[in-house]
Amino acid sequence: xxxxxxxxxxxxxxxxxxxxxxxxxxxxxxxxxxxxxxxxxxxxxxxxxxxxxxxxxxxxxxxxxxxxxxxxxxxxxxxxxxxxxxxxxxxxxxxxxxxxxxxxxxxxxx
Length: 110
Fold this sequence. Notes:
By secondary structure, the chain is an alpha+beta fold. It is built from two helices and six strands, in the order ββααββββ. It has one domain. A hairpin with a 2-residue loop joins strand 5 and strand 6 (99-102).
């Protein structure tokens, strides 16, 4: 019933910054699509600020997804069809339930 997942943006170099929210996607949760979305937003994702980076990723996903549904924010991560993704800006890696699916992504350094 969908292609659901939650996404979390972190930066281990700034571990004191808490994840502001978890991004929920209903139809865009495959590893390939999540990687494409993160790469598409990466240059606007402020590497040193998890809050700004998360906002930029949400904006990019909302521009990708048509209509008013299928993207949300929530307080908790959940294990949906495609699990939970962690986007770590300190090393450019994306993990899906602890499995590395992308590495070396460059994020905005401003």
